[in-house]
Each structure stands twice: as structure tokens, then as C-alpha cells.
Amino acid sequence: MATTAISRRTVLSVLAGAGAATLVGCDPTPTPRGAPATDLPDALLVEVDDGLGVLRGADRQTVAHSIATADGMAIYATAPQGADTAFWRIDTTTGHTSTRVVLPGRWVPQAVSAAGTTVALTPTAANVTTGRPAGRDVTPVLIADLRGVRHRLELRGNFVPETFTDDLAGLFVLEWLPPTAPDRYRVRVVDLGTRVPGPLSTRTKTPVPPGAEEEMRGDGRQAVLRPDRTTLYTLYTHQPDHQHTRDLISGRPGNVHAFVHTLHLTERWAYCVDLPHPFGEAPASGHAMAITPGGDRLLVTDVTSGTVAEINTEDLTVRRTAALAGGAGNGHAAADDGRLFVGAGRIVRTAHLADLGRATEWPVREPVAGLVLSPGGERLYVGQVGAVSWHDTATGAELGRVAVPGLVALHRLAGRV
Q1: Which residues pair with 47 in a beta bridge?
Q2: Alpha-carbon distance 188 to 196, whole Å?
Q3: Mean pLDDT to the nearest integer, 114-143
Q4: 88 near 76, Cβ under 8 Å?
């Protein structure tokens, strides 16, 4: 799979379907007699209704109040245990569960470190790409791993955890302003030693001056982690009268409709790559990103206009744009080293990166709800209404299909055997 997308941190619900089982030790439900058995070639992570599940072969597996690691190899889960919370890790390849740790109070997982070892939990679910949180003056945050509680924070203000610094000494957060009636936000980093939030650095690794921190009012659409786990890219749209830190420092005017917020997890700097018109003009749901396996190219698409922008992740510039056919519906994307796949409505388009302006297309039965490439790139999994199908990436021919009742989105590959 070429794209590691970190979309909403979700609370998991029971996934219906033949051969359903849970990752927490319940007995599997047998497939009804006479029902066809279709096995998925690869394990997948999906969202169903208001939850997340694992599809593996003929099994349908879920666990409540969970978050998946960026590589899909593990899930961290919580469950009420009296007045406290049980916390544990599930290996998505084997279904093996770790020993449960008891956390004081009630918590749900909110963000997981890029390496998949540490989790930030909050009392209520809220995340970077699901809109604004409720107003509050104080935000409790618990940092835990399989040894137990590592830090407990009481942050003065309205904060939403996003991810961790590479050394786990800092927690990146969105600070919503004003705290009790939030309408804008800024990205900050909490030093876990001092428990104090502060500004990030600029790309030149100098501290952001007071008053020059960016405040955003737009929609966080999707987050993608670079394969080497050093950088998190988040797509934002609809930023009326927005000014980047570099504009605030220089005094230049700014009015950006869409950009990719680049967050370096090791060096703690942030930089925004502006996207050209017409990005950000159409609904946020029509935008999507995919990164190549080597991490050198980030592809952003606006399916409404059909525009694709290729970002060079080394110098953080838009290298080129291209026009595909426009469409309607939610946008989804996946990429390997040579191809970009874009899905919207009942159409999947394929373009070779060597010639982004030319694309082939093939129809699917229902509106696309996620695209995931198989490890070798020979199959493309397509989430649809109540099902996941998989297709030959060269011809678009449907190779198989499984029913997934209540499917909301297809996210990524799960663990591998």
C-alpha cells in the first residue's frame, strides 16, 4: 500500500457479516450454510458506521474504542473497567492481545506515535479532521504505553492531540481558540517534561516569533505519514484570509484556499505548501492525497475539477499540475511508484506519473469509499456501499468482492502474515 493515511481516530463498533469475530476473545459466528465464502487476499482496515474493523480472509473482526497505528500493524483499544479504563494492544496479523493495563479514570485513544508505541488519550473523542471540539477551559490528556501511564497533563485551554515528536518528548496538538467558543486553531507542541505548550519552529529551525503563529479556520481533510515516519502531511481546505507564519513574519498579504501543512516530527518545524487554484474552491470532501512508497512525491487531487498537483517532498514545492476529468462525490487516492489511482462517484481513474494528464477509467458498482493498493500493486481494493471489491490494476476487471454491511470507508492494509 502506497498511502498511509491517518484519517479520523475512531471508536469501533461491531462489524456485521458472515464469519464475524472480535479481537477481544469472543467466539466467532459461523458462516450461514449455503452462503458463498469469498476470502480477501490481503487484510484490510475499514470503518463501519461509527467504528473501525479488520477484514482478514473470511473473518470480520472488530474491537471497541480503538485507534490503529499508521502502518496498520496494530490497534490500541480501551474499555471501561469500573470507574477506570482497560488499555491494551492487538496485533492485526495474528489477533494476539497484550496484557491489559488499567488507566485511572475514563479515557479513549486519540493519537498514536508514528512508531506505534505510545498513545495519547482524552476523556472524549475529538480529532484533527472531524471538525471543532466542544468548548472547554481545560483539556486532560493521558500519555500511555503498555507499561502504563507515562504522563498526565492538564492543559489550560482547548487542545486536540495530533501526533508525537519522534523522540516521544513532545506532543503535537491543535489549540482551538477561543477555548470556550472555538472558531480557529493553531498547531503547537507540548513539552512532556515541562507540560507546557509552545510554538513550533520555522523550516529554518528558528523559533516562531510571538504573534506569528498561524491560526486556521478551514477543514482538515486528510493526514498522510511519510513512509520513513519523519513527516506528517495534512491537507487543509477553505482558509479565508489565511496567512502563513512566513507571511506574518514578512508582512506579506495572504489569502489561501488550500495547502498541505508539513510537520517534521524530528526537527519540530512546520511549513505549508500552498496549492494553486482551483484547490480549496470545491467541497473539502472532494480532495484527497496519496504518497509514493519512496516518500518523494505527494499527490493531491481535487476530483471536482479533476486537478492533480504533485509536490516534491524534498524541497516542498508544487512540481507540476495536471488535469484529469472532473467528477462528483468524495475523493479518494492511492499511488505506487508509477501510478496514481483516483476514485470518486462510481468511477476509478488511473494515470501514470510519467504522464499525469492522461488517464484511463473504469466503473465500479457503487460510489467509491476508499482505495487501497495491494503490497505488490497488482490489485486495487475499492470500498463501496456495503462491500469491498478488488480489481486488476492493469485492466480494472473485478477479481473479487466481499460484503461489508455498514461500510463507511476503506482505510489501509492491516497486518500481514
Answers
A1: 52, 409
A2: 10
A3: 88
A4: yes
Query: What average pLDDT does this structure show over 197-205?
Result: 85
Amino acid identity of residue 162, one-letter, is: E
Mean pLDDT of 170-180: 95
Half-sphere exposure of 147 (CA within 13 A, CB side): 5
C-alpha dihedral (225, 226, 232, 237), degrees to nearest 10 = -80
Q: Could you tell me the pTM of the whole model?
A: 0.85
254 near 244, Cβ under 8 Å?
A: yes
CB atoms within 10 A of CB 388: 22
Cβ proximity of 352 and 359 under 8 Å: no
Nearest to 257, CA basis, from 272, 273, 235, 279: 279
Q: How far apart are CA 343 and CA 383, in angstroms?
A: 10
Calpha distance 411→308 (Å, rounded)? 21
Map residue 354 onto helix, strand or coil. Answer: helix
Q: What is the pLDDT of residues 317-344, one digit of tens each?
A: 999 999 999 888 999 999 999 999 999 9
The Cα–Cα gap between 175 and 168 comes to 19
One-letter amino acid for residue 13 of the chain: S
pLDDT-derived band at 257, boundaries 50, 70, 90: confident
* Per-position DSSP letters for 90-138, written without gaps between them: EETTT--BPPPEEESS--EEEEE-TTSS-EEEESS---TTS-PPPP-SE
Question: Which amino acid makes up residue 373?
Answer: L
Question: Which parts of 178-325 are beta strand (E)?
Answer: 184-191, 196-198, 219-225, 231-237, 258-264, 270-274, 287-291, 297-302, 307-312, 317-323
Q: Which residue, chain included where needed, has cell 490503529?
A: 68
Report the share of the chain in percent with pLDDT over 70.
84
User: Please, are residues 7 and 222 in contact by the beta-carbon 8 Å criterion?
Assistant: yes
Task: Go through the chain and tell me how many residues it has.
Answer: 417
Give the per-residue pLDDT at 129: 61
Q: Would you say residue 69 has pLDDT above 80?
A: yes
* Average model confidence (pLDDT) across the chain: 85
Contact present, 413 and 45 (Cβ < 8 Å): yes
Please give the grid coordinates belonging to residue 393. Answer: 490494476
CA atoms within 13 A on the CB side of 192: 22
Q: CA separation (Å) from 57 to 43, 94, 384?
A: 7, 12, 18
